[in-house]
């Protein structure tokens, strides 16, 4: 459970177990599409919200259709790459938006930070993540900076998630991806380097085979203000607003020191966007400006975490402690 303050509701609904999905394959040439080609015409410049026009007389092909609308000049996307993307997805029959990073769910333009960053989708290519595996499989081999149209049937591209958003298996869906950035990161990796001792009043951290062991100072009341400490200093690039971060992390509550979540225990890193309100405020405030390769100890008072809301078994009003390894960014 990435400590999200809010989530892309429809993106979250579309994330389903990889076991139930069938990888899709496409063709830029139009061969073996099982139909006459795409039913949607996409216009607009890369980086701007695309316009999608549906041919109401055409039938959606049985096999997924992939077209590169604008070719980028960045690195080729490889399987497992962590991708940061702008995305517009819509249904063919109903014309209903499933995902739109250019606008909020209320239809307003997405709010940008002072540095121009706005909420985007973070997903792994051909790996079950925040998007179904099948819909990102055709992005393998595409170049960063490209705009790619993917069109097919909901059952093929979304799997069981089609029902979650009210679609039948043969309903058509159109996706337009602007691939903004990518990173190749070992999802089992972690930070290396000499670790500093915890400062006075901060939890002790020992790194074992299964990740950090965090010990809350005995008899200490939780701090009222956010506290952070750099335990291991990395030498990678500085993290900026809007980037996709790939991290290992363990979280405990100050009250009992019990682990409520750990990517190390899942044996797979987590990825999210930083600096755009996609995660709890304490992460946005502390991780922007850190470097890839840093290990950070964070103590978040309730107002920088989940406040007076219970979340996933974490009691309302909890002070949270995290150890975060920043292992990649895109």
Care to describe what's here?
Residues 1-23 form the signal peptide. This is peptidylprolyl isomerase. It is an enzyme of class 5 (isomerase). InterPro entries: PPIase_dom_sf, PPIase_FKBP_dom. By secondary structure, the protein is mainly beta. It folds into 2 domains: 9-183, Chitinase A, domain 3 (Roll), CATH 3.10.50; 204-329, Chitinase A, domain 3, CATH 3.10.50.40. It has 6 helices and 16 strands. Strands 3, 4, 5, 6, 7 and 8 form a 6-stranded antiparallel beta sheet that branches. Strands 11, 12, 13, 14, 15 and 16 form a 6-stranded antiparallel beta sheet that branches. Strands 1-2 form a two-stranded antiparallel sheet. The chain is elongated, with a radius of gyration of 21 Å. It starts with 8 loop residues before the first helix and ends with a strand. Mean pLDDT is 89; it is low at 5-10 and 14-34.
Give the structure's gist in a few sentences.
The chain has helices at residues 9-14, 133-136, 154-158, 161-164, 263-266, 281-287; strands at 40-43, 51-54, 65-70, 82-91, 97-100, 121-124, 147-153, 172-183, 204-208, 211-215, 227-232, 244-253, 259-262, 270-273, 295-300, 320-329. It is mostly beta strands.
Topology summary:
Layout lengths: L8 H6 L25 E4 L7 E4 L10 E6 L11 E10 L5 E4 L20 E4 L8 H4 L10 E7 H5 L2 H4 L7 E12 L20 E5 L2 E5 L11 E6 L11 E10 L5 E4 H4 L3 E4 L7 H7 L7 E6 L19 E10 L1
Antiparallel strand pairs: 1-2, 3-7, 4-5, 4-6, 4-8, 7-8, 9-10, 11-15, 12-13, 12-14, 12-16, 15-16
EC number: 5.2.1.8
GO molecular function: peptidyl-prolyl cis-trans isomerase activity
Catalytic activity: [protein]-peptidylproline (omega=180) = [protein]-peptidylproline (omega=0)
